[in-house]
Hints:
Low-confidence stretches: none
Shape: globular
Largest sheet: 3 strands, parallel
Helix content: 40-55%
Distance between the termini: 33 Å
Strand content: 5-15%
Number of strands: 3
Number of helices: 9
Amino acid sequence: MMLATTIAFLYKYNLINDFKLNLEGNHATLAGHTFEHELRTARSYGLLGSIDANHAETILGWDTDEFPTNIYDTTLAMYEILENNGLQKGGINFDAKVRRTSTSMEDLVLAHIAGMDTYARGLKSAAKMKEEKFFDSIIQERYASYKEGIGASIVSDNENLETLTDYAMKNGEIENKSNHLEYIKSMLNDYLV
């Protein structure tokens, strides 16, 4: 909600070409979204500017600013950044701190190293997914029905509610195709190891 509100504000006040957004994982979870969802939305509007690279703790309900250590999350984040052709003038910064029980200077150094390594591993996995067109293939198959027949007619703006109602009444039951989400998640895991 926060990202969508910001985008609406920029459009309403004709500022859309003047700003890029800095996104943070925990802000996404506080809005009820995943970090990669927020990155994709900002990218879709050409507004992805930079990110605060912290761990998005989903179960606490507030912004914990932990250093990132979850490769699954950083892979999906880096995929969106690669799809955005990088962050141009923005960057990846640590808006993070060590936990209260990490009391030595060594802990702070190790936390930075762990965070950088996690994003580097995420980048390597995301680059391989992009190279092998992992998501592209899934999306292409999922929306193939929009390239012909009634789907293509909808995309071409040749249909309205009345014509679609007639189409539905004439065709009765349809067979829903599985999106095989569990299999896709399993394949995604293969990119992380």
